[in-house]
Amino acid sequence: MQKRFRTLIGIGALSVFGVVAIQATAPAAYAQAPAAAQKKPKDNAEYDIFNNVIKDIQANNSAKAVTDLDTWTQKYPDSDYKDDRLYYYMQAYSKANPPQPAKVVEYGMQLVNKGLKTTFTDPQQGPTVILNVLYLLTATIPTLPNPTPDQMALGEKSAHDLLDYLPTFFANDKKPAGTTDQAWTQARTQLETAAKKSLIAISLIPGNQAMAKKPPDCPAAEEAFKKGLMVYPDSSMHAYQLALALRCQQKENPDKIPQAVYEFERAAVIDPTLGGGADPKKIQDFADQAYATVHGSNEGLDQLKQQVKGTPLPPAGFTIKTATQIAQEKENQFEQSNPQLALWMKIKGQLADTAGEQYFEDQLKNSAVPQLRGTLVEAKPECRPKELLVAVPLPDAQQPLRAEITLKLDSALTGKPDLNKEFHWEGVPSAFTKDPFMLTMDTEKAKVEGLSMTPCAATPARRGGARRAAARKQ
């Protein structure tokens, strides 16, 4: 009976998780436990209940396992196996459909509080049970829907304890006969990876909880994700979540947007799968589009991708020029190098707007306009004109130019102005039509500068004029 009882403990212990090397070796280790370490059931009835629990767990019948465990607890509260029973509760609830992670953590916390190494001292059984308890807590706590600070602390402790325990458990001299070095190493690597992923997942929880509030507490989430990123600088999920927390503050603090783009790009560059659960192309495309949306183009994106590899957080003073800032800089440069053309572009833009006529009547009409520059398209008449039709072309304007301004002079010019030449003037708007677009300005001849002029041809004398002139002299 005692031998059978010992064997069942070993079979139950190995059913916690699917690590092949451990599953293959645990029964033998349990079966060989020394007699002095054996515990005793109170009677055959307790043995039968325990036997039923093991069969339930092996058959993945968690509901019946929990029922049998409850019966066992009620009938034998002070069983020699009450600590083992807590462990079986963990197994049963972890296999439930759906799983009940809160119950797994509840019973696991009881065992941790008792002290795993002082509770499971059997040299054959104890190491595997301790490993399984630590693994279950490590893997389960990140799946809780809204873990408490105590539960998160337990998860971190369990993951760190698991990492510390693995070298001892997987020592070469403890590798069971028949287990290959590759399988033994692979089992350890799987558990190490699980523990590290759990630590990252747990460190994300405070920030996720802040973001889940209604409305989201974005500043708190930002601080939480930054804190986690300092501990796990290579975690692309931390960078990505931090970017989301920064972006959700853009309305109150637009300066957060360049920082968000930095973190989106860092996540995409370090690991676009975000730890294995995301489509890498979608994450990379999203990050690149975020940059282009802010900057207005992909110019400088390759340099940013190199920069984000250096540090988990952007350096002090980091920014990305927005499309609006770039446009404003270009406009300022244009105004400095082409002040007269820039002035006309502003006036024309207002006139061409849907409220252009109102703008003309309220602000422009009869108001002196600073000096403008344009190209003469037509003079009326060609010689000694009092009306000039002017175009104000952009540098890349196509020929032929179209007149946009009519200048009405106070007196006629003294010659024939050359067409398609630039000149300057000052004037006062007096009339406007939107279709076809034409602004009429009154100006003084003295305020027209730079016109290239050709003398007008002499008027031919009429026939008989010479004889009449001679007769007058007589």
Write the layout of secondary structure elements.
Layout lengths: L1 H12 L6 H12 L12 H15 L3 H14 L6 H13 L6 H14 L1 H4 L6 H15 L8 H21 L11 H32 L5 H14 L4 H12 L8 H15 L9 H16 L5 H7 L15 H15 L1 H14 L3 H9 L4 E12 L6 E5 L13 E5 L6 E2 L4 E13 L2 E7 L4 E2 L3 E2 L10 H9 L1
Parallel strand pairs: 3-6
Antiparallel strand pairs: 1-2, 1-5, 2-3, 4-8, 5-6, 5-7
Could you explain how this protein is built, in words?
The protein is an alpha+beta fold. The protein has 3 domains: 2-202, Serine Threonine Protein Phosphatase 5, Tetratricopeptide repeat (Alpha Horseshoe), CATH 1.25.40; 213-323, no CATH class; 340-454, OB fold (Dihydrolipoamide Acetyltransferase, E2P), CATH 2.40.50. Helices cover 55% and strands 10% of the residues. A hairpin with a 2-residue loop joins strand 5 (422-434) and strand 6. Helix 8 packs antiparallel against helix 9 (149-169) and helix 9 runs antiparallel to helix 10 (181-212). The longest helix is centred in the middle third of the chain and has 32 residues, at 181-212.
